[in-house]
Every structure is written in structure tokens, then in C-alpha cells.
Amino acid sequence: MSLADKAKHKAEELIGKAKEAAGKSTDDRYLEHEGKTDQTKANLEDAGEKAKDAFRH
């Protein structure tokens, strides 16, 4: 996995955490859920990249 991919996935995860926190503080359940979804998506993409790397080596 390239460094750019790692950075992209980490940035997506951090954005998701920020959305989740903003949703909690403003009692906006939609924004909170969207943040959790973004985090899950970033984690799944990261896991997929790691699986690809495992098969390459």
C-alpha cells in the first residue's frame, strides 16, 4: 500500500471522527451516523489494501 493511500484513508477516518463528534455535540443524529459511516468506509478500504499487499508478497 502506498503512503498516499495510507494518508488518504487516515484523513477520511479523521474527517469521520470530526463529523461524529460534531453530530454528538449538536445532537444531529444524521451527522453522527454519517461520521461513523465514513470511519467504517476508511477502515474497510485500508483493510482491502492490506489484503492486496498480502497477496502480492
UniProtKB/TrEMBL annotation:
InterPro entries: CsbD (IPR008462), YjbJ_sf (IPR036629)
Pfam families documented for this protein: CsbD (PF05532)
Ranges for region Disordered: 15-57
Name of the featured protein: CsbD-like protein
Location of the CsbD-like domain: 5-57
Family named by the database record: Belongs to the UPF0337 (CsbD) family.
